[in-house]
Amino acid sequence: MQTEWMGRYRPLVAALVLNENIVNRNMSVRVPMYQGIGLIAQEWQTLEYLIEHEDETDCMNRISERLGIPQSSLSKAVKNLVAFGLVERFRRQSNRKNIILRTTPLGRELYAHQIETMKSAGFEAFFETLEGLDDETIACFTLALNRLSGQVDSAVALSPLIPLESSDN
Where in the chain are the domains? Predict the structure, then answer.
């Protein structure tokens, strides 16, 4: 069998593939959350990142890198978050290029309202399953996922260009 190279990790790889496919399928679904506001996954992830890193002044480029969201997609997500009144954009006087994002009171209110739903919708069972693992094991697994993400991203970025078939034929 050609998948033998995965060895004992095959079930884990299969679970990662399934999870990624389910997440990808639902990435553009706008989920109603609070006061008539619905967010897609990247908007939610951006809002959550901003709340988690409130004391930091990461520019949008850095947020894009840390979340693994392409800059164009992050810009679109931020535009929607601003339109919903959940996020505000700022610039430093000394650097007008880098945009700094801050959540609004409404953004924090929406997040506080939605976290119970998020927790009970899946993370509670996920965390419960991991309860038997010590912090070192969780850190090791986190490192493994981060390495996999970095390698996949690098492989895509460095892959050779392949000519497309001409539509003239």
Answer: 8-152
Q: Which fold has domain 8-152?
A: Arc Repressor Mutant, subunit A (1.10.10)
Whether the predicted pLDDT of 75 surpasses 90: yes
pLDDT digits (tens, 9 = 90+) for 6-40: 889 888 889 888 888 888 888 888 988 989 999 99
Where does the pLDDT of residue 152 fall: very low under 50, low under 70, confident under 90, or very high at 90 and above?
A: low
Q: In sequence order, which residues have a C-beta less than 8 Å from that of residue 45 and are 6 or more positions away?
A: 67, 69
Nearest Cα neighbor of 55 from 114, 115, 100, 15 is 100
SS (H, E, C) the chain: CHHHHHHHHHHHHHHHHHHHHHHHHHCCCCEEEECCEEECHHHHHHHHHHHHCCCCCCEHHHHHHHHCCCHHHHHHHHHHHHHCCCEEEEEECCEEEEEEEEECHHHHHHHHHHHHHHHHHHHHHHHHHHCCCCHHHHHHHHHHHHHHHHHHHHHHHHCCCCCCCCCCC
Alpha-carbon span 77 to 55, nearest angstrom: 21
Q: For tokens 């430093």, name the residue.
A: 92
pTM assigned to the model: 0.76
